[in-house]
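Purpose: get a first structural picture of the assembly so the mutagenesis plan has something to point at.
Setup: two entries, given in the order below. No constraints added.
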Amino acid sequence: MGNSDNDLGQRVLDIYDYIQDNLYFNRPDLQINGREFNSTLLFGLLTALCQGKELIIGEPGLGKTTSAEYICSLLYGFPLGVIWASEVSGHPEQTEEKVIGRPDLGRLNQGEEVVVWSYFVLLPVKIVDEINRLPETKQSMILDGVDRGNWEYLNDAIINDEYCLFATANYQDRGTNTIIAPLVDRFDVMVESKHPGPNLAYLIGSDGASDGHLRDEALEARFHSVLSKRLPYGRLSEELESLCSQFSQAVEGRTGVRPLSKGERAELRVQMGKIPFDLDFNAFFRVVLSELSFCRKYGQKRSHEDCEQGCHFTNYLCHSIRNCVSNRLPLSVRKFSQALAWLLGAQEAGLEHLRLILPFILAHRIQWKEDAVVKKEKEARTDPLDVHMAKEAVREMHRRFMEQGDQIKNALAVACRIADGEPMEPIEGDHPLYWEIRRDLGEPDIRG
Amino acid sequence: MKNPFSDFRSVPYEKREIPLDKILKDKEKMMSRILDGYLKLVEEEAKDLVWLVEHSRVAKAYTAAVENLQGLPFDQDHIEEFCVELDNSQKIPYIISGPAGIYISAMINLSPESRIVLRVEDFDRTFHFLGYRLPAGKTLVIKGNAGEFIGASLSGGNLVVEGSVGSWCGAGMIKGEILVTKYAGQNTGEFMRGGQIHVEGRIQGVGRSLLGGRIYERGKLLVPPHGHHIRAI
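Result (structure tokens, whole complex):
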């Protein structure tokens, strides 16, 4: 599926170009298939397309929230004013009533328990600004909603049929808290919104670099009116979509790019879901998963158990990390690989797609041991330490895969036949994946 | 359960084997069979808790060792490795010196090589009964000091000890030659019937009952003096 056959893909790329040229100035820091991308913009687009969850980190004022707002506006067709109204800001006094919903006091006086849902819950695009300013106890409040789009208040509930979530976080200062591990794990990707450099920064605020095209006060008032009507969720979605369509037409007239409709987004997700993964992708991802979960001594990684000195697998990633990756990792990898492959018009999601997305999917999920951090923190780099270490880890695992890829695929092929009942011996090798294959084939205890 | 490898069903597989892996695997398999044979022998011999050196017992242990080793295609490398295992391995739960030496001797006698070199100087353990029943056509070179009953019942082979030996060297030897470059202990050549023992250092004492053969000390014929055997010295 080339982009010539993929009109939707081309439209998304046009939106990318429009944001890059007019709204969010930054340097490209990724390259794939001969095309350069800025990671914040690319992953923002992919997050919005595949209904993902993105954590954007960075210094204050470097475009974390605004980049997410532009992407949401142009991919979902909401005016900026509506998106601003739906944003949740993280601060210690934040309450469930402001984030999720509150009782309708008028109706409550009449003895009825009716929930007034927040715009944050009702809109498919959700932005949490400065999420790490929410105290740890209050972060749990949004866990379920972040994970499943499932929002509950009193005896009522809303399940979003379509949603994506962006959260921004500043670097640690006196006002920030740690994002709790279960919430961090729910984010598919983490990117840094970087400083664009002096030359691009000079252009910010210049003529033409304005987000005024994404505002429409009259339409915004109509959005607010519909959102305040307290319609049933299904009907509300229909009415919002009708307004989005009107806004999209207006935006197309002003900018030349047309936001996607709900139907188009649904269609492109079907197209993405059909993209297969090639065998190199498959084998390399198994290598990655094995290195991030394997422990010869204790059966798997556990964050409270430490490796023993002199372990045979010291040179693999399992020795440098504390935690075990969760089952959300494969979900994020599949979703974002397919989305990237779709955007680039590829027939299959392959090794290059996987290599590009993996550091951003792993950066916030890996808990490094202190020794590993000490080794890397003073290295020259252009990324924040977490992303830099994830990129290095992926580079290292990819090097091992390049050396052993054929043997690994061969081992998996043999394992397939053994699992089918053929009398063969599993192929032995040094990488943790070989050990995991033997465990899956039922060898009683290969810990030796 | 679903086959988690089914995506690779279409991949043509190839059972690649690195030559070194195969060599190591074969060697490991062979060592395991050799060790099994030894443990079987020791189990049998350890029944009485104490292992006494009696002619019938030694002969029985040797026969059992030969039976256990018969048909195994081992060579000098396996013999050396077995000695290493005996010396410092956790794989062997208990070691009785006599049967261990008899088992090594049986391996030497059954191995295809005509010349075998054992570097016992590398081991902490003292091995006894090395060269037991060494047949004609075989040369065993022991580098370092050996234990007792070295070259016992020698049956025509050449045994060279580059070091000293304990007591009962060449006991009951029938034919062949033993050369010890340093010293020999007591009862050297006890019950020997034929062959020669050359000791380049001092001999602490020769056996009381010698039925034949010759013993030389520092190049001088010690037994029999003047070509006649004596009963006791």
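Residues 19-227 of chain B form one domain.
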